[in-house]
Amino acid sequence: MLVRIIGGHGGVSPGFRATSYLIDGKLLLDAGSVASGIQIEEQSNIDHILISHAHLDHISDLAFLADNCFGMKGKPFEIYANTPVKNAIMTHLLNDVIWPDFTTLPTKENPTLRIHDVKPLMQLVLGDYRIMPIPVNHSTGALGFIIERKNASVVFTQDTGPTDEIWKYAHEVKNLKAIFTEVSFPNSMEKVATASQHHTPATMKEEIKKMPKDVPIFLGHLKPNFQSQLFKEIAEIGDERITILGSGDTSYVF
Question: What EC numbers are recorded for this enzyme (predicted)?
Fold first, then answer.
C-alpha cells in the first residue's frame, strides 16, 4: 500500500496544503488539496474518494477536481460519505450557486461525481480494499477509516479530538502497519483544541496510550502558523514511533 500525502496540514498557505491522502494512485482520502497538489492526469486516474467530514479543508477540491476532469474519465468519481456529510456537500458546495452540481453533469445517468451513503461500522469493499468507517470525536458526523489491502492495514483518523472507538477496532486489526492522526494546536491553546475537537501534543501523548503498541504514528493537520512550536512540543512527547507530516507530497509504503 502506497500512501501519498498530497496535503497534510490544517491550513492553507504557500508550502502548506489541506488534507488529501492518495492510496495507490486510485483511492483518495479527503479532497482538501487534490486538485492543486497533483497533475490533472493523476487526478483523472482516481476511482474512489472517501470523505471523513464536511469541513472545507477536506472537501474544497471536490469542486476543482470535477472541473479539471470534466469529460476526461468516461465514468464518475465515486465518492463515499455518511449522510450528514453528503447533505452538507450538496447543500453548501455543489448547489449550483457556489459551484455547479457535478452530480448531474454532464448527465444524471453519467455524472462527473457520484456520492454514495456510507454507514458507520458497516464495512465497505472497493476492489482490493476493505474499509471500516468508524465515528470519531469531531463535527459533521466525522469518520475515521481502517483501510486494509492484501496483507497491510492502515488507520486514518483525520480530524479528531480524544476518541475511543477507532482504537478498540485498531487493536483487533491484523497486520496494522501505520496510524495517521492529527495534532493541530500547541499546548497553550488546549481550550481552543478541545472546543474545536482537535489535539494538542499534550492530549496526543495521552491518546497514544489507547493505540496499539509498536505501530508507526504519523501526525498531520498541523496549523501552519504554529508549525515550529508544534514540532518542538511533539518532539517532547518522546515517542520514537512518531513521524511529523510537516511537508506535502511525501510518500510511504506499507
Answer: 3.1.4.17
